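Internal QA ticket QA-208
Title: Verify multi-chain structure generation after dependency bump
Assignee: T.L.

Test input:
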Amino acid sequence: MNKWIYLLAIALSLTSCIGTDVLEEEIFPERVQIVSSADTIKVGESFQFIALFFNTSGEMEDVALNWRSLDNSIIEINQNGLATAVNGGTTQLIVEANAVSDTALVTAGAATVSSTNTDARTGTFQGLNNYRVEGSFKMELLGESSVRLSFEDDFVASNGPGLFIYLTNNENSISGGIELGELKETRGAQFYDFDQADLFNVYSYVMVYCKPFGVPFGRGAFEN
Amino acid sequence: MKQQSFIKVGLKFILAILALFYAANSYAGGGWPQPKGSGYFKLGQYSIIADSYFTPAGDIVDITTTGFHATYLYGEYGITDKLTTTVYFPFFSRSTLNRVEDASGELVQEGESVNSLGDTDIGFKYNIINKGVAVSALLTLGLPLGNPSGGASGLLQTGDGEFNQMISIDASKSFGGGKFYASAMLGFNNRTQGFSDEIRYGLEGGYHFSNFWAIMRIDGRTPLMNGNEDFIPNNGIFSNNIEFIGFNPELVYEVKDNWGFSVGAGFAVNAKRILAAPAYNAGIYLKI
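Actual output:
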């Protein structure tokens, strides 16, 4: 009988180790996005353009950006993204990183007018994988450096282990997204602040995600 | 290594293999009591490793691989010819959650584990009828000796943290000069700490050939959904409102008249809120 007891012990030791799960690689197209821009710059003044680069993992990456203007006689821009209106007219500003680029059509005119969306972004949650996540949310800028994501009174989520809030551009996963913190309550109003105002217009979805087991419970798309 | 995509809708009607936490209710000898002074004792190992989970609607989604293992002692002893006491004591329980890496090998989430005693059942079986059909009533007390919030995250469990009391009726009959038997069980499990109460049921049949018993057990669990809606289950092994119908084949080999060993597995055709993976059970038993 002893040998069978030993076999049981061996079976236990072979099966109960902590293994490793490898996430399937999600490939995103590289992109660079101008997140702070102007429609018009007053002649003689400057405006700070900001662009972010996202790699094939969908994550922000600090790479060298190349800024240029199609017509330097109208607007000049240096390699830090600082644009200066020289003479009246309209031209295109281009930012390039690796093999991708983004553009902004900018006028040198009578007043400086930012084109960056600073209005609150809103959306509504829907459940995923048979879990309940409902209610509306709003994201707004708090001054120049912070952002607040607020869930409204009608927010309801299924209970679950280790639920976290993410901003993401993938409707089914958090790849390339950012974590805002653990879900505070499964019902009612609550908010999540973060100090990356540059990211205010970057992400398309808010996701409620079971982090330890890797399951999305619900998401909401920004409607604006 | 596991490829993680998130939804496998449509698998629910496949003979999906299930996380049956059936160890605790699969030994109790049916309606037959132990004669006074006689006993049945088993040292067993229960294991499940799952990378899928039955959602509340019964669909299957991929999850980070999690495991649960219990090394247990099970015993039945006849206090009198009518009264048998039963004990299920998982003296070593282990729950694990895999480490997660991205495709480049970069750490996404650390793995973790917890080891402890497991939730323990103590039962008292009283034989009501033992002529042709054996019918017994069983009271089982579930003692929360396991850890309901272990590991660095507090999410791993070796127990549910609640004291439950189950009453059940078991009926058994043998046929063909002892070559066949059949048993049926119906029980009500009163759970505490926000868990929903449950109806449990089972059918079991066995066939004896050579030195083997081939056993098929069909069991199920239906929650009454009367628990606390805000209760947060930590994982899919000791979750709340679990529901399933499972098939559990088992093979018992009688080495001698008084000892042998058994191997079994658990499979399901329908389940909710439970890990979706094969559950295995093996053990050595001794009769006195």
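Spot checks passed. Chain B touches chain A through 61 residues (CB under 8 Å).
Status: verified.
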